[in-house]
Amino acid sequence: IGGLVGWIDAGTLSSGTFSGQLATSTSGSTVRMGGIIGLASSDGVEMGNNFYNLDAVTVQGQRMFTAGALYAEQYNRWLQANRQLDIDNELTQVNGVYQINSLQDWRRMLAFADGGYHFVLGADLDLAADSGFSVASFNGRLDGAGHTLQNHSLSQTLLTGPVGLFGTLEAGSNINGLTLQNSQVSGSTQVGLLAGANLGELAQVSASGTVSGATTGGLVGDNQGQISQATVVATVSGSSELGGVAGVNSGTISNSSSTATVTATSGVAGGIAGRNAQDATISGSSSQGTLNGQS
After folding, report:
1. Where is 58: in which H helix or E strand?
2. Largest CA distance in the chain
3. Helix locations, the chain, DSSP H
4. pTM, whole model, 2 decimals?
5. If exposure means fewest CB atoms within 10 Å of the residue's CB, which of 68, 77, 110, 137 is most exposed?
6. DSSP readout, 35-88?
7. What CA–CA distance (Å, rounded) separates 139 from 170?
8. Strand bridging mode 195-198 / 220-223
9. Cα separation, 170 vs 167, whole angstroms
10. What is the CA radius of gyration of the chain?
C-alpha cells in the first residue's frame, strides 16, 4: 500500500506528493506500506523528489518515517517553491561537504539522503525529541567525525522492511567515525541500531542500546556490504538470525568486536553474526557477550 503507488517495478515516479492516511485491516501481521510507495523493486525504477508531510500523514494510525517523509517546515517550503529544494539553501556547505551542526540540520538531511551527497556531523546530537526518526534510504557519505548521536528510539513493528536509524544503506554509501549511544530500536525483520540493511561501507562505528526483531543485529540486521572496526555493546533479542554485530552477514565484517547479550527465542544466534552466508567473511573480530537460546 503506497500513497502514490502500491508496487513500482519499472518506470519513473517524480515530484509527487501524498496527503491522507494509510491503513490496513490485516490483523496480527506486518505489511509493506509507505507514504509514497508500498514496494519498489531495485531494478528499472527511477524515483526522486517525491515527498509527504510527516506531520500530517499517518501510516497505520501513526506518524512513520517511510521513504519521502519530510518535517512540515521543509515540506511546505518544497511545495511553495514549485516542488523544488536546493540543498545549498537548506544546509551549510564547506568545500563540498554539507555540515550537520544541529537537530534542525539533521532533520533537513532527510530531503537529500538519497542524493549522493557528502555530510559531516559537527556536534553531538540528542535525538530524544525525534522519537520514530529513520532515514528510509541513504545513498551518500556521512562522516561522524567522532561525534555521537544519542537517545534514538524507533518502534516500527507494523511494517515489513529494513528498520534502523537508517533503513537501508545503499550500495556505494559510507558511514564512518560515528557513535550511537543509548539507542532503542524494534521492528519486524531486518533490524539494527544503525541500519536494517547495509549494502555500503561502515567503518569505525560503534553502537550501544537495545534492539529486537527477526534477522536482527546490534549494528545491522542484514549486512551485504562491508563493516570494519565496529564496536557493539547491545542487548539483542528476537528470532530467526540474531548477532551481536549483524543478524545475517552476506558481506564482510573485519576487526570488529561485540559485547552483546543475544537472546534468541528461535533460530540461530552468534556473538558477531547469527548466520554467515556462503562466500561471506568474518576476520579479526571478537565477541565477549552472553548468548541465550531455546531448544
Report:
1. strand 58-59
2. 59
3. 72-80, 87-90, 103-108
4. 0.95
5. 77
6. SSEEEE-SSSEEEES-EEETTT-EETTB----TTEE-HHHHHHHHHTTS---HH
7. 5
8. parallel
9. 9
10. 18
Residue with cell 533479542: 237
Task: Return the ∠ at Cα 63 (arms to 61 and 69), rounded to 5°.
Answer: 130
CA 81 – CA 75 distance, rounded (Å): 10
**Burial, 18: exposed, middle or buried (Cβ in 10 Å; 0-12, 13-18, 19+)?**
buried
Indicate the residue type of 206: S
Cα 179 from chain centroid (whole Å): 15
For residue 43, the tally of other CB atoms under 10 A from its CB is 7
Give the chain's count of helices (H) and strands (E).
3, 35
Pairing, β 93-94 against β 174-176: unpaired
Per-residue pLDDT of the chain (295 residues; tens, 9 = 90+): 888 998 888 789 999 999 989 887 665 556 788 888 888 765 556 788 999 999 999 888 888 899 999 999 999 999 999 999 999 999 999 999 999 999 999 999 999 999 999 999 999 999 999 999 999 999 999 999 999 999 999 999 888 889 999 999 999 999 999 999 999 999 999 999 999 999 999 999 999 999 999 999 999 999 999 999 999 999 999 999 999 999 999 999 999 999 999 999 999 999 999 999 999 999 999 999 899 987 6
Q: Cell numbers 548466520 label which residue? A: 275
| Cell (9 digits) for 250 | 552476506
Whose CA is closest to 262, among 253, 251, 250, 271?
271
Grid cell listed for 268: 540461530
Residue type, 219: L
Distance set, CA 162 to CA 6, 60, 84, 149, 194 (Å)? 18, 17, 28, 20, 11
97 is written with which cell numbers?
561537504
Closest CA to 31 of 136, 141, 157: 157
Spatial distance between the Cα atoms of 36 and 81, rounded to a whole number of angstroms: 20
**Amino acid occupying residue 13:** L
